[in-house]
């Protein structure tokens, strides 16, 4: 057969949609580009749900920032996508303070090598965050901040982490507690 | 044709954890749908879903990741999980899409169209066969909303779907919003497709809202159902009524969740367009007013 198989043609199309490959011959480039953009937008929403503090920390910039980052990068699932982005932002010193706590709790809860799905850590792990420490043991993570008037407790539930925010109230004004970076 | 396993179930709304409270508080709801991949493998249901099942509410597992249109064989692990979801829910019917979601080791993260070709029909029939060999419940197939088509389609959408249903013996899950989106993006009349589909094979209907970007309508499920989709629903319901058919209908919402009152108003607007009984609490504030405002604001 001279015509490529359906498997090969489907692979070429997916590569164009998520991995930056050229649009396969014959397709309407404008429409495939629109679909590619739309896929990144959908991913941005899914990653924001899995990494709420990362998205909140970037605020209005979240969608643009994520879409730029995701261009040409195949999706690895919302947990890994957010993790990869958070690590990159941390490396260049642009990780928002809110997200530092989130990344730290994830890092102590699971071992992630950047290539395969994260696996839960078993032993006692601690990691410094700005003004505090994240401590993980048997899948539970506690983030203790001594410099700020904010503490985050987290409990592992399935894939994600849920957060309960508690004000320590030491400085008297709980309304300034949104940002630990002060 | 067999009797529709969902006949008479009326209006429902897709169950999502974010709106579990709203669904639980719908006194008239008799069926819902859950994304099959969101259920745990061990066969344990989220408590609110288990409560709905105990109330006798039918829950249809709706698959999104089997990739029935993928040229590569189905992933046996995903098939097992899907089959186990159907068993746990004691589902009278299950549903999946006429689409593929991965190829060449890459996940697309969304439903992608297959070419309307003989080769794609063979692939779909093979994969549906693999799935049905494991399933006890009948299967309904849902045509997707696609932003683009393949360059070398051999069939029209109606021909392709009719042939697919014939070959597989599957029911049709007809998404009114998808019909609207495809027709609008292709510059076609949605009624043309409805004229040519085997409506007696429709197990149930989907309806949802979307958004327009750069001249294209995206079926996002994150906005209220817009008036043109409700209008199409009214048209379609009249056709069903003429053929003495009354497939149930389900609203899908997958994000941008509005306050409960708005979602209830939207459900009332859909019930009214489809000629179905309302499922919202009778003491809730009347829906029409809020609904019209919401819908107008979305367009």
Which key phrases capture this entry?
heterodimer; A: 182 residues; alpha+beta; 2 domains; five-stranded antiparallel beta sheet; 6 helices; 7 strands; disordered C terminus; B: 299 residues; alpha/beta; TIM Barrel; 18% strand; globular
Task: Write up this protein.
The complex is a heterodimer of chains A (182) and B (299). Helix content of chain A is 43%, strand content 20%. By secondary structure, chain A is of the alpha+beta class. Chain A has helices at residues 6-18, 29-50, 52-58, 62-70, 78-91, 97-109; strands at 110-111, 119-120, 125-129, 132-137, 140-145, 150-157, 160-167. In chain A, a hairpin with a 2-residue loop joins β4 and β5 (140-145). Chain A is built from 6 helices and 7 strands. With 299 residues, chain B is of the alpha/beta class. Chain B has a single domain (11-298), classed as TIM Barrel. Helices cover 39% and strands 18% of the residues of chain B. Chain B has 10 helices and 12 strands. In chain B, the strands form 3 sheets. Chain B has an 8-stranded parallel sheet with strand order 3-2-1-12-9-8-7-4. Chain B has a two-stranded antiparallel ribbon with strand order 5-6. Chain B starts with 10 loop residues before the first strand and ends with a helix. Mean pLDDT of chain B is 93; it is low at 287-299. The chains are: A alpha+beta (182), B alpha/beta (299). The interface between A and B is medium-sized, with 33 and 33 residues.
Q: What would a concise description of this structure say?
A:
The complex is a heterodimer of chains A (182) and B (299). Chain A is an alpha+beta fold and 182 residues long. Chain A has helices spanning 6-18, 29-50, 52-58, 62-70, 78-91, 97-109, and strands at 110-111, 119-120, 125-129, 132-137, 140-145, 150-157, 160-167.
